[in-house]
Design a protein that fits this description.
alpha+beta; 4 helices; two-stranded antiparallel sheet
Amino acid sequence: MKIKNIDGLSAEDLQREEEKGGRFVYFAYTISLLVVTFKRTSGVYLIRKNESIKSKAFPFTLLTILFGWWGIPYGPKYSWQSIRTNLRGGKDVTDEVMGTVAGHLLFQEVERQKAVNQ
């Protein structure tokens, strides 16, 4: 999982950002080519407490508005779903990301303990 907007933060830094009110979200977008419609998601973004989520969601919403509607039969349906997801602030995956971060920190601690005991 690639997280965007973390600027080289460590796992501990990510935990602090989450404690301060940051969250991890992804956005949806749809692209249609007449008979084929692709509904996809962006990478996961760290949205800090005072950061605007609209500025991150806007490119994906615009992409959907311009290129999502044209597919038959699913273009309009998937486009609406993508736009609705983005207008609601994206899909929040903070719990999943923080679970991964906690697992990473636990692994690091176990490795440190192994090194000390050897």
